[in-house]
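Reopening this one. Same input as before:
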Amino acid sequence: MLYTIFKGFGAIVLALITLVGCQTIRNSGNPPLSPPSADALRIATYNVHYIILGQETGAWSVGGWERRKGPMDQAFKAVSADVIGFQEMESFGRGSGGRVNLTLDWLLANNAGYAAAAVGDPSDFPSTQPILYRRDRLSLLDQGWFFFSDTPDVIYSRTFNGSWPAFASWAQFEDIDTGEVFRVINIHTEYRSRSNRIQSVELVAERIAPWMANGETLFVVGDLNARLGDRVVDILAQTGLTFAPVKGSTFHFNRGFNLFGAIDHIAHAGGASPVSEPIVLRQKFDGEWPTDHYPVIGDYRLGE
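Same output, byte for byte:
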């Protein structure tokens, strides 16, 4: 009797291991990232995880950041984006008032060719979802934000169910050489509450509607905490946005575990067309994972 029980349990464990292994293989892979083309615009999105300022050791501590920051810079350079939207670029600390942002300061200090959009005085502009851009190619025309809330224009207002604040940042750019104008909307929906995610993207759809009606070129990027085919993604797709067919995992548990499909996305509308398949850069840098997500990259031509 016991033998039969243990044999059955062993078969279940083996089946689970096989299933996880198959899922990991299916959602993995690291296709080569070609150098950016001069006639295309490289758009990227990257969730870099927050830092806990009062914590010296452990996961996402200041000590952990000291280990991660070199690899983070290497990953940023490897992506080589013209525009990249970041999520969770935040340094939490009592009394900091949001004025400390170790990741943003580090990347700007080590990449002089980039400037930050969607940033400002934390008292009137939430700066934890910055959009970095190449200063020699693009000029910043405008920027803004809105919170996923019943009071979206009230800074740091809590989400629809009272959970912690979540928001969209956005920036409008002009290509210095061609005069093409486009807008990037950078979003991060809350991972725990599906109702929050749905209401959040409904608000995004409402806010981008006038821009789309005016025929603007738009890119919506970010961590949607939803896969292609999910209602959260479909709500945005129904506005006329086209999502890049990102394959495999973009979140890896900070362990390289690629268990499910992409939750980080790039979508476009208006005068933009993709020139290649999107790339997910699944690799360590200097032997470390820079964060628990992979960067997602897409190349687009404007004016088409």
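So the earlier flakiness isn't reproducible anymore. For the record, The longest helix spans residues 2-26.
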